[in-house]
Amino acid sequence: MSSELKALEKSIEEIAEIAKGFGLDFYPMRFEVCPAEIIYSFGAYGMPSRFTHWSFGKAYHKMKMQYDYNLSRIHEMVINSNPCYAFLLEGNSLIQNKLVVAHVLAHSDFFKNNVWFRKTNRDMMESMSAAAQRFHSYELQYGYEKVERFIDAVMAIQQHIDPHCYIKEAENKNCQCSCDRQQTPYDDLWNLDKEKNRSSECNCENNRLFPEVPQRDLMFFILEHAKDLEEWQKDIISVLRDEMFYFWPQMQTKIMNEGWASYWHLRIMREMDLDVQQSIEFAKMHAGVMQASTRNINPYLLGIKIFENIEKRWDNPSARERKLYQRPGGQGREKIFEVRTIDNDVSFIRNYLTKEIVDELDLYLYRKVGHEYKIVDKDWEQVRDEMVKNLTNCGVPYIDVINGDYGKRGELYLLHRYEGLELDVQHLEKTLEHVHLIWGRPVYLETKIDSKAVLFCYDGNAIAKKLI
Amino acid sequence: MVSGKVNFIVSKEDWSLHRKGELDQSRHREKVREAIKKNLAEIISEESIIMSDGKKVIRVPIRSLEEYRFRYDYRKQKHAGMGKGDSKVGDVVGSERQPAAPGMGGGAGEQAGVDYYETDVTIEEISEMVFEKLSLPDLQEKNEKKLAAKAIEFKDIRKKGLQGNIDRKRTLLEVLKRNALQGKPGVHGIKPEDLRYKTWETTYQYQSAAVVMAMMDTSGSMGPFEKYIARSFFFWMVRFLRSKYQQVEILFLAHHTDAKLVTEEEFFSKGESGGTRCSSVYRLALQLIEEKYNPRDYNIYAFHFSDGDNLSSDNELCVELVKELLNKCNLVGYGEIEGPYYYTGTLKTSYKQIEDKKFTLVSIRDKKGVYPALRAFFTDKRENGTVSMIQPFEQYAGE
Fold this sequence. Notes:
The complex is a heterodimer. By secondary structure, chain A is an alpha+beta fold. Helices cover 52% and strands 13% of the residues of chain A. Chain A contains 19 helices and ten strands. In chain A, the strands form three sheets. Chain A has a five-stranded mixed beta sheet, with helices on one face. Chain A has a three-stranded mixed beta sheet with strand order 1-3-2. A two-stranded antiparallel ribbon of chain A has the order 4-5. Chain A is globular and about 75 Å long. Chain A starts with a helix and ends with a strand. By secondary structure, chain B is α/β, with parallel strands linked by helices. Chain B has twelve helices and 13 strands. In chain B, strands 10-9-8-11-12-13 form a six-stranded mixed beta sheet, sandwiched between helices. A two-stranded antiparallel sheet of chain B has the order 2-5. Chain B has a two-stranded antiparallel sheet with strand order 6-7. In chain B, α6 (224-244) crosses α11 (370-377) and α8 runs parallel beside α9 (315-328). The two termini of chain B are 63 Å apart. The interface between A and B is large, with 93 and 67 residues.
């Protein structure tokens, strides 16, 4: 082992001790030093080993180009697995690596303890690389182009899973026949105490609705009910769906996770003995990570600010908070650990983004006005609510399967749960074509454009749309 | 190495065989090429190509390969951003058309919404795609001597061969040599081993003659846009002809009220002004044909680009002259560029009365029209052409 690696190992030991002292609880760690191209390919694929697809190549190319032009730099990549893998960029200086290691340990702690990761498959690396091999064998057997076209199609809808299916799993699975179908959004509340098992007594005419209740998990519905899928195609759908379940909690907690990691790398590094030179290098790197961006939210910056703000408010509550919420003070650390455990980005922003932070970070809302993007709102509550809205369902529109046998012809009818924001029509039309390729029969999507309900249909030849 | 207190390992492996990213990137690149092909019409009139001035590699912006999905309309959504502490309602944080700064300006990765992708392509690559489907239409066999499509050339002498190909001179020389070596000089007693045969090689001689006349209106009414379109067309035409055909002469004729023969450089760079009399350029073309390019010896093509804003009294004469040209040419093409002003009595309207299969008329409204114009002019309309004497190079390249 080179002296460089030895020095790194020694620092990791020190950093890990400090982190543990702070109460961080992480998985066993595997650190691997590797060259930029490797980190970029892991970044593009989301994993060290995943099936082959041109879109990963595109992402790789983009990342690599930005690296080559010195526009961005990924210092590390962490894999949510047990043991937890962390890849460090070859060429990082020792001080850079120290920061990265501290950062990574906090990520590992987050993966291990945040409740949204509870169901995550921690052996995903193995599953993915096994799937990659199977996909490769399909390419050999059915032809590269054919497999690629099918993956293209499945990727187009891979975000349409139901991430809460684990919660629903616990609910009863009995027939909710159509006479039980919800009349108001609160029906389920009234029914909580009722006897659930009534499927036997249900004889109404409409109980042949298919699916009986709208299905949010389009991937699963297609997997179960598309009629002409071959085994290899089902495998691809099922693999992509599983991978989405794996990535979803990460998408759901991006701001929190980066904020948490940044919060801790700062605190851990303060505990280390750094000389002047090293302190400057560290400060530079930290500042780089914390850069604001006019058209995006920097999750590192926003996340750390919110955690620090929570800590401050729970350590030194105002008189009103003391009285109203019975908050005694001095509970800052405890509180942020609790937040790290139970929140996701939506609840994190909704519950803890304060006016103080919005002002300090100069957050605003902008939108397209004419040919330009202009700031349209700076009111802190508006900013907060709009951010929550954009983060809801990871920013993916809700699409429900409401009929899998439309017109009694086995056609697929999807409904966009319109919540005030229109879909991108060009993408919608192209995506329908992809859905058609998988479903094998005409597919419909109902949505709203200019406040009018519009039905799009792709029948295999052309897109048709009509007002309904 | 597992540390005692904290469970961790540090390692550094050899990753040199890991090429997944590169491999998928090349697949992506392949798909980009397909996309370029689909968008040729848009790409070939890019300024970066027309003005490339011999530069080999150019950057063309193409709409990136989209990964389609159900998503919100970015342009109708409100987004959150971060200011520097002094932002106000009404401040502009970006514009729709972000300049594609050289070397990807800062924040290139920041834009969501429309995803443009710049890619390096060599002009050769694009040319290849453009020219794939083009050819000089209606080529005719002209002067027989000049046209030998597949020529047979005897180049080699061998000891075995066909009786009909006996090389008498070589055979006699062999006899002389043998007899001389044996001390009995003279030509006598031809033996089988003296026989020499000619063998042939197939060669291709493309000496067919074709002349293409590029005629362009350079009058005052031809604004920068119109000139740009005409020059884009001729840029590709010249490249196409030079790369695909060996023996094609290209003449550059510029005109306003008068026409003159100019050099290629002048043709592509010089601006002129003044009124327009299109007949002048047709007259010049006819005169050149008369003097130098006998239609019996040459395949003649004439292409004229104008904005159609001609001296109206001249239009009738133009029609007559075009008809005269049609008698001598394989094809006459006229491209009218529809500028921002709309003229009712353009040259095009007069040309509509010409009914001749050899006459092709196109109108171009925007940059995207250049490629269809090329296709319209350089597509052989006779599916199974009876004669195709001038063969494109690539057809024999592999033989």
